[in-house]
Amino acid sequence: MNAIRRWARLALGMPSFVRTGQIGDGREAACAAYVEANAPRGDIDAALSAIDTFAYRKAMLVNIGDEKGALLDAAVRRADPALVLELGTYCGYSALRIARAAPSARVLSVEFSAANADVARRIWAHAGVGDRVTCVVGTLGDGGRTLDTLAREHGVTTGSVDLLFIDHDKKAYLSDLRSVEQRGWLHRGSIVVADNVRVPGAPDYRRHMREQQGTRWNTVEHKTHVEYQSLLPDLVLESEYLGS
């Protein structure tokens, strides 16, 4: 019953989430406070565990979660990245997982909600990774401003992105991937991981990867579940860039 209530509260908050990036009941800031109160400072594992515990016991969170997070971890290790670009920060959970799996990588995370960026920065600072994980407030669909900021202020250059993680507006998955490609930021062997391809769903992105299979992309579809439960099926797509 508690799980049902948590999902019901999440569903009620989705209109707010679409508008603002937050559910609207303060759970994101409460998550940061929970991490600060329950995880020792500088302990990434403890910070991730605290976020998972909060999502299971207190209030649902729309990050990648523990089950799908293991798929992300494995992809990060395969990519062995120096630079990671993430689209969709939320509370900073996936960036923490990336930072743990690739301790020498620099992570740039793009988030349209300034309030979420503040929450994520609190959690990263507490976990001890604030010096190598950066949140850039913006969106790749803003006419090039955020893309220019990434290039000009954060050193994203031709072929520099080793791993791209996409977990934001599902309707923007394909257009934002194309924007990154058009900038030439990927190189042969770059890995792109996309969450929630089945639920809520990114059908145009999935179709594109299928159409480009073996030419521009080599994609594996990982069957898994929607975060923090075991009933709703989901897909995580892991795609290796084969070049133009």
Automatic annotation (TrEMBL):
<keyword id="KW-0489">Methyltransferase</keyword>
<protein>
    <submittedName>
        <fullName>O-methyltransferase</fullName>
        <ecNumber>2.1.1.-</ecNumber>
    </submittedName>
</protein>
<keyword id="KW-0808">Transferase</keyword>
<dbReference type="Pfam" id="PF01596">
    <property type="entry name" value="Methyltransf_3"/>
</dbReference>
<dbReference type="GO" id="GO:0008168">
    <property type="term" value="F:methyltransferase activity"/>
</dbReference>
<dbReference type="InterPro" id="IPR002935">
    <property type="entry name" value="SAM_O-MeTrfase"/>
</dbReference>
<dbReference type="InterPro" id="IPR029063">
    <property type="entry name" value="SAM-dependent_MTases_sf"/>
</dbReference>
<keyword id="KW-0949">S-adenosyl-L-methionine</keyword>
<dbReference type="GO" id="GO:0032259">
    <property type="term" value="P:methylation"/>
</dbReference>
